[in-house]
Design goal:
Blueprint lengths: L4 E6 L5 H8 L5 E7 L3 H11 L2 E3 L2 H6 L5 E4 L6 H10 L3 E4 L7 H13 L4 E3 L7 H11 L6 E9 L4 H6 L6 H4 L9 H11 L2 E9 L10 E8 L4 E7 L9 E6 L2 E6 L2 E7 L32 H13 L7 H20 L3 E2 L2
Parallel strand pairs: 1-2, 1-4, 2-3, 4-5, 5-6, 7-10
Antiparallel strand pairs: 7-11, 8-9, 8-14, 9-10, 11-12, 12-13
Helix pairs in contact: 1-10, 4-5, 5-11, 6-9, 9-11
The chain binds nicotinamide-adenine-dinucleotide.
């Protein structure tokens, strides 16, 4: 029989249901329980997924069946809770963003190293078939010299979305607005597929919501590979379109809408290229519905961490990878705040 890693889930809010359902069909994982300081929240999820409920963090961390934890709580608490879990010897899969500043990400990375536990950061979009297809083409040089790399997240969130989880839309707990929270997956995909930024200029504003952080941001970026592009993100664009990524090189171009390749064209075609792009299937992802996430969305990353624990490896997307998008976003925020171009070292 395959060995299973016992997982506990920290936080029993919106994303916790996706952590639990993503574990359901994994052969190397067993869900042991939920911890949330709100007892009713922990009990509700535990009843749904037939496991234990904890409202006492020390008791949760002392459960010997829990070898690893997922963290899905307000972002500004990720570091504090992750460091406590690391000290208790638990391996960690932490929701995006790993923390709200690059320095706080470093503290989590260091605590995990010091306590010999593995740290993985959630960016589930990297693991979709379409993104893996684009990554393979980019790594094989099929796009030629990258020319333009741009993304759009023209989403819609109503006042209730911010109102029912008041940590959202705050600098202290959300670490920023639409760029840091809703768009960080897309920013991470830019880094994953196109590489690190060289310099950025940006504008940010709060156009429709009663929140202290930006709900709309536009940035112009030059990347280290010489390509340029824009980042346009908002939670004020009704009714909310699928996110869009577009990469154009000297030898080929691709357009991705939500998780689907809708254009795929090369000057040197290969067999099979003709069936890659498909007409958009209409699933706008998180465009207007924050819980429109696949029930098995996190399976690949949870299974990857479990395999690393069982076989002595490292997770594919570790803390250092998780910090990259936070550092990029901090540079973009600085450019927007100062009105000056920010150059990345
Ligand atoms: N990967 C994704 O697609 C995705 C989607 C949504 C949210 N997220 C991330 O997940 C995290 C949580 O977001 P959410 O939408 O589930 O929030 P939420 O407000 O729905 O739930 C947060 C939960 O955390 C609990 N909590 C508060 N402090 C806690 C603590 N110290 N220990 C344990 N639990 C605590 C709250 O009681 C609540 O139940 C955020 O970091 C967010 O960025 C990721």
């Amino acid at each position: 029989m395959t060995k299973r890693v016992g997982f506990g889930i920290i936080g029993a809010g919106a994303i916790s249901a996706f952590h639990a359902s993503s574990m359901a069909n994994l052969e190397n994982v067993k869900l042991v329980g939920f911890y949330d300081p709100v007892k009713a929240a922990a009990e509700k999820r535990a009843a749904e997924f037939n496991c234990r409920a904890y409202d006492d963090f020390e008791a949760f961390l002392a459960d010997p069946e829990i070898q690893a934890v997922t963290i899905g709580i307000p972002t500004g608490l990720h570091g504090k809770v992750a460091i406590q879990a690391a000290k208790a010897g638990k391996h960690i899969l932490c929701e995006k963003p790993l923390e709200i500043t690059p320095g706080l990400c470093d503290e989590v990375i260091q605590a995990c190293e010091e306590n010999n536990v593995l740290l993985a950061t959630v960016f589930q979009s990297r693991f979709t078939e379409s993104i893996q297809k684009v990554k393979a083409a980019a790594d094989a040089g099929r796009f030629g010299k990258m020319i333009l790399s741009s993304v759009q997240v023209r989403w819609y969130r109503d006042a209730d979305y911010y109102g029912k989880s008041p940590w959202r839309g705050t600098w202290k707990m959300d670490g920023g607005g639409v760029l840091m929270n809703q768009s960080i997956h897309t920013v991470d995909l830019l880094l994953y597929l196109n590489g690190d930024p060289a310099e950025v200029s940006a504008f940010a504003g709060t156009l429709t919501h009663d929140i202290e952080v930006e709900d709309t941001l536009c940035a112009a970026v030059r990347y280290k590979n010489g390509s340029m592009g824009t980042i346009e993100v908002s939670t004020s664009c009704a009714p909310g379109f699928p996110r869009r990524l577009e990469f154009s090189g000297s030898k080929g171009s691709v357009t991705i809408e939500e998780d689907q390749i809708v254009r795929w064209s090369f000057t040197e075609p290969e067999p099979g290229d003709e069936v890659v792009a498909k007409p958009f299937d209409g699933n706008a992802g998180g465009g207007s519905n924050p819980t429109n996430i696949r029930p098995d969305s996190h399976s690949a990353q949870i299974s990857d961490l479990a395999n690393a624990i069982l076989n002595g490896g490292k997770p594919i997307l570790d803390g250092v990878e998780g910090k990259r998008a936070v550092s990029f976003i901090h540079g973009i925020y600085e450019a927007a705040r100062t009105g000056k171009k920010v150059v990345f070292s």
